[in-house]
Amino acid sequence: MNSEFMEALATIEKDKGIDKEIILEAIEQALITGYKRNFNSAQNVRVQIDREVGTIRVFARKEVVEEVFDARLEISLAEAHEINPLYEVGDIVEIEVTPRDFGRIAAQTAKQVVTQRVREAERGIIYSDFIDREEDIMTGIVQRQDHRFIYVDLGKVEALMPLSEQMPTESYKHNDRIKAFITKVEKTTKGPQIMISRTHPGLLKRLFELEVPEIYDGTVEVKSVSREAGERSKIAVHAEDEEIDPVGSCVGPRGQRVQTIVDELKGEKIDIVRWSEDPKVYVANALSPSKVVKVTVDEEEKMTQVIVPDYQLSLAIGKKGQNARLAAKLTGWKIDIKSESEAEELGLLAEGEETESISGEYEAYSASPNDVADWLNEEEEK
């Protein structure tokens, strides 16, 4: 090695952010191994690289003893005094033993070490960048697909999306641009492994943060998300400031904000509901778009009994129970839904008892491509 090699290390240090001293120490350790292997040496050697000009020297380290039993490891006191009269028994003497053709071995070793260290450093940098992006959203480009994963290029690394994390309503082609949620970042022997998802509820939350400034700056808070990807989702929002309408903030002017998210999720229906500390109101809102007339709460069982108008029963339950299931996930409460007539038969609602909708006009909003269009027409008629 020479001064040009040292300059190259300085360039690597600048471009890759790898400390030159760390690389040199790694090369020295690798050269010790190479020297032992090629020259049948004992373990007591030290390799020194001159930090200025790059010259390499190998030293055998021997202990000063009265009587020598192993010449590879020991040196007599008399021989040590020939080198330096100040040596005493127990001291370590270093004798240069640099082989004449050691430069070739050194060059090969240095190349291997530098390549390995650069690769490790790059992997470390990528891992550091992405570990901070865990549970965040990123845009990537679809590269290919096999029977296990869809491979998505995120720029510095290729992420893996298991087929189970793919939305059932979507199919991907090479070079498709998609937004995905980073679920896991792991270190592996082959470098950092990034797992992404299009079905995770966190994707919906992050999309709202991107589209709704009030959520991004903390004025409106996302309290909970429940999702059955590709079909329907519910998101509960809340604002401490009573003058701010959290549902309206998420809907946006003429429904533009939520429409952007619906488009990104390929038509997935999204119910935006107002969170409430009162479980009765919260559960009623969560069952949007159906109307709720009465909610009874059992705190011990964490269960609610909900009564809805007869004509709203199927809407409250939803297709294959989806609406009720998502509402239960959103609120964390078990929900038992009954119609008004059934409730009267069971004595849960007194005959003739006056009821009114618990859900207010602006407590919830249901968004799908058709819903947004209908809503815009209603607004124009007003």
Automatic annotation (TrEMBL):
Q: Per UniProt, which keywords does this protein have?
A: Cytoplasm, RNA-binding, Transcription, Transcription antitermination, Transcription regulation, Transcription termination
Report the principal subcellular site: cytoplasm
The record ties this protein, via Pfam families, to:
KH_NusA_1st (PF13184), KH_NusA_2nd (PF26594), NusA_N (PF08529), S1 (PF00575)
Q: Which SUPFAM superfamilies match?
A: Nucleic acid-binding proteins (SSF50249), Prokaryotic type KH domain (KH-domain type II) (SSF54814), Transcription factor NusA, N-terminal domain (SSF69705)
Q: How does it assemble?
A: Monomer. Binds directly to the core enzyme of the DNA-dependent RNA polymerase and to nascent RNA.
Task: Tell me which NCBIfam families the record gives.
Answer: NusA
| Annotated protein name in UniProt | Transcription termination/antitermination protein NusA
Please tell me the species this chain comes from.
Alkalicoccus saliphilus
